[in-house]
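haha ok so turns out i had the wrong file open the whole time. this is the CORRECT one, sorry everyone. sequence first:
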Amino acid sequence: MGGVTYVTSSGITAKVMGDLGWLGNRETPAVLSILVFEDLAMAAYLPILTALLAGASLLAGATTLGIAAATIAVILFIALKHGRLVERFVASPSDEVLLLKVLGLVVLVAGLAQQLQVSAAVGAFLVGIALSGPLAHTARELLAPLRDLFAAVFFVFFGLHTDPADLPPVLGVAALLAVAGIVTKLASGWIAARRAGVSTTGRMRAGAALVPRGEFNIVIAGLAVSAGINPKLGPLAAAFVLILAVAGPLLARTAEPAARTLRTARARRTTRFQEVPGPGGNQAGSHHERDDEGNGLGGEDRPLDDLPDGGARRR
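then structure:
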């Protein structure tokens, strides 16, 4: 259940952030860092899960994990140290040729990763790391329509394998798991964005962007059901993913209004504090209350470099 409920859907998150125009925001690197960490965690988790479901011994599981770790290390070494050679091989003045080269490289590396007991998705992800600069920008533009198409196809396929009659018995448990998942992802995004010096609005956006679940969650549940684990795990995972796949984009659209409401509540609390007479008739709140970042609670708690005048003054 930890694997089923843990991973954020990178596809849905990327789509939501692109549609809402968040890709250029200051919290985006923090969100992407969490997504990368989750994908790498899956690279270690999936071989262990597969070995356990197959009834392998502890030694076999450790061997599988070692092979997976070595494969990831080799691919990362090539991507980081020899990324320019990879780019030189893939680069092409023709968009059609570039698209075919990228897709071919992805299929090749993903297939090798799968054969070496590493998730094919992780192999494809490492190909993306190897591409950088203008080439990555061009490839991203070319692949964006395919990303949206495959995301839609995945959920159609997911729906075809879901029996609506199996969902009502597990909706209660799925709803509780969804609430726990929303709270923990909001907290993760908030903390990560706060450590990056992002304002309250950006923290809310970061947390909301991490809420959706999708492909990995279904894959993990499918592996467990195929191995003969509790058959109710499949419908439970389906209901859980369905709830958060719908709730995630909706929460993302309410993140900025929620942040404004939070700032308004802080401002009102500060005003009431200022109006309370202190000892000697002085107002206890004559000074401006500050939050834990030193920002005035009566206004937008943004870092100095976010201010229009480059931080010359506070609003």
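Residues 108 and 124 are 9 Å apart (CA to CA).
again sry for the mixup
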